[in-house]
Amino acid sequence: MTTVASIQDPEKPLTMLTAYDAPTARLADEVGIEMVLVGDSIGNAVFGHDSTLQVTMSDMLRATKSVAGAVEDALVVTDLPFLSYGVDRAQTLENAGRLLKDAGGHAVKIESGPHTVELTEAMTDLGIPVMAHVGLTPQHVHGVGGYTRQGTTAEHAAEMLDLAKAHEKAGAFSLVIEHVPREVGAAASDELDIPVIGIGAGPDTDGQVLVVDDAVGLSDRIPPFAEAFGDVRAEMRTAIERYRDAVESGAFPSEAHSHSEGLDL
Ligand code: KIV
Asked: What is the mean pLDDT of residues 107-135?
């Protein structure tokens, strides 16, 4: 079973993939994905929003419960959604706790800033493992003006690394770093003891994460740093068209799909 302890000092790159439902989580777990992330990207991937900002605690609780109930080995990390943390300290701790206690997650992920250092320490002290997240933090989309590359100057990259180190010191067990130059991903991995999971951060981090819809080829469009390893969208489209055609032509349901009790009606 993957735990926050077992992913420290990995011998090969760690794999993390998002999942928002039980069937996807079960598949990821069965093929040996080490960490399943119930990302607040559920807002884009599942609900069709253009950002993650509308995702609520109840969305995350429902999805986390489905995912946590489906996996046997993977570590289930779940996002604290926009404004569920940082506004009120007690509320932050309660929300983080609910994702473990009520929904069965194993750890929370928090989009990190200077204000989350103390929160990371408090959560860790209470027994809530925290994964930090620096670089592109999609909950700040309006503040940064889009889903743009981060850490593109030496000064900004150094600030980001300092923030990452502050979260490590505060007790974070791992760090996600998103949409940064590969040398920033590499430096984070070198300079931090905890495993650094990259997304759009080059090949030199301790692991990689992708949004599952991007990875399987279900998304309409994918970020430049992602790769579609399949074409589920085309497969689904073909299956849905076949279903439509079969119903319209009367080929479905066939005798094999029907039963009779010989009722005289
Ligand atoms: O919400 C999410 O899916 C994420 C990953 C992209 C890291 O935060």
From this structure: 98
Residue type present at position 136: L
Using CB atoms within 10 Å of the CB of residue 37, give its burial: 0 to 12 exposed, 13 to 18 middle, 19+ buried.
buried
Q: Tell me the domain boundaries of the chain.
A: 14-254
Amino acid at site 220: D
Decide whether any atom of ligand 1 lies within 6 Å of the 218 Cβ: no
Pair 178, 225: CB distance under 8 Å: no
Calpha distance 174→163 (Å, rounded): 13
The CATH number given to 14-254 is 3.20.20.60
Ligand 1 near 208 CB (within 6 A):
no
The pLDDT value recorded for residue 257 is 96
Average pLDDT over residues 162-189: 98
Q: How many CB atoms lie within 10 A of CB 235?
A: 13
Predicted confidence (pLDDT) per residue in 25-48, tens digit: 999 999 999 999 999 999 999 999
Q: Which atom of ligand 1 is nearest to the CA of 40?
A: 1
Look up tokens 């000092």; give the residue: 9
DSSP H or E stretch at residue 20: none
What is the arithmetic mean of pLDDT over 96-108? Answer: 98
Candidates 30, 159, 178, 261; catalytic one: 178
* Under 8 Å between Cβ of 4 and 174: yes
The gap from C-alpha 20 to its chain's centroid, in whole angstroms, comes to 8
Peptide bond into 129 cis (omega under 30): no
- Return the ∠ at Cα 205 (arms to 203 and 207), rounded to 5°: 95
